[in-house]
Amino acid sequence: MxxxxxxxxxxxxxxxxPLAPFLARFRxxxxxxxxxxxxxxxxxxxxxxxxxxxxxxxxxEGLIExxxxxxxxxxxxxxxxxxxxxxGADADEVIATDSTSINLFKLLAAGxxxxxxxxxxxxxxxxxxxxxxxxxxxxxxxxxVEVRLAEDVAAAITEDVAVVALSHVDYRNSALAxxxxxxxxxxxxxxxxxxxxxxxxxxxxxxxGEADFAVGCGYKFLNGGPGAPAYAFxxxxxxxxxxxxLAGWMGHAAPFEFEAHYRPAPGIKRAxxxxxxxxxxxxxxxxxxxxxxxxxxRIRAKAQAQMDxxxxxxxxxxxxxxxxxxxxxxxxxxxxxxxxxxxEGYALTQALRARRVVPDFRAPDIxxxxxxxxxxxxxxIWDAVERLAAIWREEFWREPRFAMKAAVT
Length: 409
Hints:
Largest sheet: 7 strands, mixed
Strand order of the largest sheet: 4-10-9-8-7-5-6
Structural class: alpha/beta
Shape: globular
Number of strands: 15
Helix content: 25-40%
Strand content: 5-15%
Number of helices: 12
Distance between the termini: 38 Å
């Protein structure tokens, strides 16, 4: 039997951790144990400084000249190139733009156009709701498109499927999909595949490989801030043929010639629509540098170690709570959050937050603990489990206020 570890053992792991210096490079509220970076990443100090610079100097002093002098006009490509390094893509295959939902709509529509005669968008039962909603909205608009949901996606890919749309990491249980295998299965039946990387890019090394399209958000593991710009990946082989439905002026071949009719830009720029949100994209641009500096292999290794230690502590120090782990144990089959089922999951989540431990809750009964190694120390894992044990022992979670549902969970 492996001996039980003490808090001192966890503190020793922090002392030996090569990523520990990154903790000081984020604004980490005092005594807050934050396990929700899988929903909203912490604020990097560098992002704060860069946004102030963009506000005070680039906008405040430079005004309109900053589109050129501060290279605002190039932000979507510049940020996209950094995200490409996190996703196994080439720099000219990713662009930062719009929201995940809007990019889903654009690329699903483009995929249908690239597969004439096929009118099915296939996704999985339980996929993140916005992925399904956007597919359904597109189908409703076009009128002759079916959105098909399947438990076994690989087996459900038939000759009428145009696009397979999947999440790389399940937002509920953190199960990691077989990207290479499912991409190959789609292609074997002549379908295209679109991956949602919102819960994987920035959390683990991603290799898009032969994937056709991908989308993802900037505010979770990428630490770009609430509502940060999202991004779109389009494999280079599809650039000349890509027709996206939101043909805005920034996706035009020559936006400042103000031509009367749309002429798509070459390459990934044609995935753009309107004017980029400069301040938001500036924050994301600065935040990405920290991930690139730390390296995804080191980030992934620490996250796996932290998840193992957390799960072990739950079993050793508070088995009476009755948390049921839904996340796969094997490292190669899970993302970067642990999902636990509990009948009183919502009340427990709210009680934890009252004690300065922040996970999140997903209906109907799942507590999610996210592991973001650049902002989470090993000793904080110990402290979080100790607070959970105390909440249960004292029956603190039974207070009526913790049963009152908030607008955001």
